[in-house]
Amino acid sequence: xxxxxxxxxxxxxxxxxxxxxxxxxxxxxxxxxxxxxxxxxxxxxxxxxxxxxxxxxxxxxxxxxxxxxxxxxxxxxxxxxxxxxxxxxxxxxxxxxxxxxxxxxxxxxxxxxxxxxxxxxxxxxxxxxxxxxxxxxxxxxxxxxxxxxxxxxxxxxxxxxxxxxxxxxxxxxxxxxxxxxxxxxxxxxxxxxxxxxxxxxxxxxxxxxxxxxxxxxxxxxxxxxxxxxxxxxxxxxxxxxxxxxxxxxxxxxxxxxxxxxxxxxxxxxxxxxxxxxxxxxxxx
Length: 284
Known about the structure:
alpha+beta, 284 residues
């Protein structure tokens, strides 16, 4: 059966998402109901361990142990790995829906791994699918518009992420990328082989930095730490006073070559896996 395509290759991903959500009848409610979108497109959704399903694995046997999601166009079925958590499952479904409707995504089967489902993928089609998946999850500009009515704070992300059924990490990226004010977030990842699960004692490194357009023009696009690994207590500058979802206020010093350092007011929180340092404003 022919794939459904939204006409007009020149349409933006936000316009495609709005059209699909409107036609599927889910544009006015939160969170975006992926089941209704699947039903509208005539797609079934299954979850199983790909290692137990040779029909999918035969298309890319080397990927079998790394597969997280797949789309079979001819079978009109979206599959996610049964071990994915709810947020990863939901993101993967939107990613496969994007493959199904985007112009130029003409393959009969799409096989996705952690790499292709991440923001770091270099493959053009996967980047496009991730972009449209975000538009579907955050309902185009709706997340940003609602966030701009709230304070410039991590608390805004913690409040809105559950409403959109999004992970704190994806919501924080969306919040910063689309914000009209100068702001940024530094994401610290627990270092491989960390001996402790305790945030205070575990070692972290900077995984990536996301900045708003105004922040990049005024300050910087990315940072690196002066030491390779940093303990959680050094980042939080306090010991034992945090919990998942709690916000801690700190200051951040960013050194520059041949210029005085910048000092910023920041907020920190953890999702239990990573630490997020939200840069709010410079300090005089």
